Every structure is written in structure tokens, then in C-alpha cells.
Amino acid sequence: MLSYARAGEHNAVRSSFEDGHRSRMVTHLSETVVRTEALTKRYGGTLALDRLDVELSAGQVLGFLGPNGAGKTTTLRLLMGSLRPSSGRAVVLGHDAWRERSAVHAAVGYLPGDVRLWPRLTGAQTLEYMRRLRGLTRPAGPVSDLDDVAKRLGVELDRPVGSLSKGNRQKVALLLALLGDPPLLLLDEPTGGLDPLGQQEFHRVVRERAEAGAAVLLSSHVLSEVERVADRVAVIRSGRLIMLESLEELRRTARHSVHVRFAQPPPPGAFDRVPGLTDVRQDGAQLRCTVQGEIDPFIKTLAGFQVVDLVSHEADLEETFLALYGHSDGDERR
Amino acid sequence: MTGVTLTAASDTRAPVLRHTLATQRRSLAVWAVAVAALIGLYAALWPSVRGNTGWRQLFDTLPKGYRALFTVGGNIDLSSPAGYLGVELLAFMGPTLIAVYAIGTGSSGIAGEESQGTLELVLSTPITRGRVLIERFGALAAGLAVLGAAQTAALLGFSAALGMGLDPVRIVAAGAALALFGLFTGSVALAVGAATGRPGPARATAALLAVAAYLINALAQLTSVLGPARPLSPFYLLLGNNPLANGLRVGPALAVAGVSVLLVGLGAVLLERRDLT
């Protein structure tokens, strides 16, 4: 059974795609879906992306992590062939992303970072238009479960998109990316505007696609999001890849800001020797500090006191990077 | 969520063209009615113009430059319906209206969608950039054909109703001439928009060229300096002979259509090579 049912005009695209080493039904998990080779993009004098080398295999979710303006969107748009590389290249399923973008697009579901839809079309009409653009005569095979995904995410498909909230527009855009059950999903900050439940369901959908064999590149500036869905993480900053690590390694460098209220003020210096604790500020019965890496020693220490309230949140990435590398964006640039 | 079907079969031919026409359906209808209403207004005035020789005398007292601006050939023939409508409709108002429509439609084709951010979504599918441009050009041509047909139908109707006795073949010629003038200005807007991605410059360039075409034709009648440039003016080539009285000059009309296609082709090449904004 084919997952694509294309009309005549896109036949060339389909056959070149199927003649290649890939078929949707036979998924080799080790197969490379995306490969960039010293991919570089310059805008005038600004280096937006500096010799990026990344690989992504089928069935894998790669979290693309970095603060805003780091080059995530630039990378995804290079992979889509929207931008021409200044040097280097991106290869998607054996096709050059710039020169053979049609062939690439036949295999990619794309969720842009800044979702803009036709305000007067309903979600269903938008899907229908995109399906025609994709040359899908009908949603054969797994695509028909789009109805199911729409229900799970609670998408309002019968209202004009312009009247929807940002989160609901985002859900429509996600359905557009899933259209045709593409073997590669490029998702640029996909959960922006989604409520926590919507995010959770969305992450589940992404995982399911990956388990069905799709490769997923998901960009985010939130570590916890990437943590939930990604198998591997590429961290990018000022257009440069700083690490391409497993999540374990990244988690070890993760930082949390913690705010604790005690029933009685703990004795001064009670937290001086807890490993991974920095920026300790104790003010009577209140403690503010930053925990890096394992939080367990800190929790064990806290257990010795009566705790009234505990608030912990993930430090934002820019903070983490500054702590890790100790210099600002400007120093990174050459 | 009920009643939404995502499973029906789709017709995937010319998706951009059909989407564009579907979204423009209502505004295109309004434009067609406006064109017909304008012609109705001029036609209704015809009986009073015919019997009034004072107009003619007034016109003859105007300076030659002024006359050149408001007529196509510098001469005015208000004694026949074809001459009257040639001056009133084809020398200024008609081309202005059609250019406004065409420039708006042309600039929104690529640049408009790009600045709204929806082009990226369209181009995330296997459809090529060139294909989107061609289908947008097709939608522009189809819209102009509708307006040309509206003018033709209105002229046929009012001519019959008011006994103006206009030649049906020349009525069609006038409709085609106007639509082709729109095709030229719209193609400039579409091509510049495709090359730059910016609707403002696309509109400005097209409007500038439309005004230049108009002024070159008008001023060439006053000064011999502009004489050699006159055959380069699409305004002169299409409307310079008052097609309502004298028919369409087929060669020049094809030349204007050919240049329009060439411009869009050039736009396609530049669109293919540039970064999307």
C-alpha cells in the first residue's frame, strides 16, 4: 500500500523518490534522512550559520536547541530550500535541498516558526488546499488518521483560521505538516502558543510518527521540551553547533533556579557544601539558589529542615550557556 | 468537529490558479459590475452629448497639450458613439481602472503572499516556484478576461438598448485592448514582486510604467523628441487608434502580450534563484 496518492503532475517527483533507496513501508532505522555538510549562511556581513554538520536518521527525533536568534530557523529554511547556502550543502533523502527542493518537499512536512495561514479559510479548507498543492488526490493510508490527530489535539477545523487563537492556529499548522505522512518532519518551535495539555498531546503525536519511522527535527528554545521528545540534541548558539550530545550529557549541565521557604530560618552556612549549588542567597527563612546537574544532594540537604514551599524552574538557555561558556554572543563571533 | 471530512477525493489540477480565483471571486464580481456601471453612465450621457455642439467648441478652444492628454489621438470625435466612448472610456478612465485592478492582483501574486508569510507554506509542498508564478499569471489573465468580457457585454447591451449602433467586432476589440493593457501592467507588478518579494516596489514600478506609457503616448503628439518612443508605449500600441472605432491592431497587441509573458518568465528565473524572505 502506498502512503502517497499523487496526481499526474507530481509523478516525476514520486518516482524519483521511490526509485531511491527509500520506501515508506520499509524503514531502515539506520538510514540517514538529513545530512548537512559545513552548511553556512551569511546575510551580508552577518554569519547566521557557521559550518553546521548534523545528521539525522529515520525513526529519530533530533532536538535542535538554542536561544532565539541562534540560527535554528535559518537551518530549517536551508533544509527546505527556501534559502540558498552561502557554502556547504544540505542533503535530504539523497536530494540537494537547494537544487532539488521539489523532490525534498515531497518527503517533508514543515511547520514554520512563524505560522501564517489564510485567515478566511477554515482549517478544513486549508488542509484541502495544501493537499491539492501536495498532489494528494485522497489521504490514503496513514493520512486518514489525520482526523484522529485533529480530534486528539482538539483542532477546530470548521472555523475560519483568522478567528482562532494562536494555539489553535498552531494545531492546524501541525496537521498541515503531517499531511501525506511524510518521512521527515521539520518543526520550528512547534509548541509556541499551545497550552500544556496541547503540548503533551503534540509531543505524543511526534513520538508516534518517529516510532512509525519518520525522522523529526524539532527546534526549540526550551530544554524541557526537547528533553521530553528528543533522542538526540544539537545545541546551537550564534550560528555555531556547540554540542551534539545525548540528553544525559545535557541534563548534567542543566540548571535550575530554586526558591525555598522554610518554617524556621536554617542556620547560616547550612547549604555551603552542597555540590552543584551556586548563587546562594539566604534571607531569613528564604533561600534562592541555582542548582546545576544532579539535584539529589540538594534535596537530601533540604530534607533536614521543615520546608513550607519549594519552587524550581529551568533556567533559560541563554543563562545556561552563559554559565557554561562564560562569554556572551559577541565574543563568539569572528 | 462534526461534519468535517478530510477524506474526500480532491482534484489536484492547477491548485494555485483555482485557489486564487476562488478567493478573488467576490472582488472580481464587484470590479466587473463597476466596469459595467461606468459604461452605463457614459452611455446614458450619450443622447445629451450628441445634441450638444457646445462641447465640441469648448474642446477645440483647449490647448493642444491638454487635448492630447485626454484623447488618444489628439483629435476628438464626439459626433459618433464610437468616438465619444473612445475618448471617455478608452482614453483614460478604462485603462486607469484596469491598471489599478491588474497592479493590485499582480503585486499580490507572489510578493503579497510572501509578505503575508503564506508563500512559504505553499512552497513547502512539491509544487515549484515557477509553477506558482505561472498559475498566478493565469489567474491574473483570467481576471482580466472577465473584466474585458464585462466591458464587452456592457457595451453590447447599452449599444443595443440606446441604439448607439456600435460595431460588435470592434466592441470585442476594445475589450481585448483594455484587458491586454491590464495584462502588461499586471505582469510588471507580478514579475517585480517575484524578483524582489516586496509588494511596494512591485506596485510602484508597475504604476510608474503605466503612467509612462500613457504620458509618452500623449506627449509624443506634442513634441517630436518623444516621437520615436511612442511605438514603445503599450498604451499607444493597444489604445492609440481607438479600437472601438478602428479595431484592434493584432501585431502590436501580440507584441504587448509577448512582452508580458517574457517579463513573467524573467520573474520566474529570478524567483527561482533568490532566498525567500
Automatic annotation (TrEMBL), chain B:
Pfam families linked? ABC2_membrane_2 (PF12679)
- Kindly list the residue ranges recorded as spanning the membrane: 28-49, 82-103, 137-159, 171-194, 206-229, 249-271
Listed GO molecular functions?
Answer: ABC-type transporter activity
Q: Which UniProt keywords apply?
A: Membrane, Transmembrane, Transmembrane helix
GO cellular component, alphabetical, reads: plasma membrane
Q: What is this protein called?
A: ABC transporter permease subunit
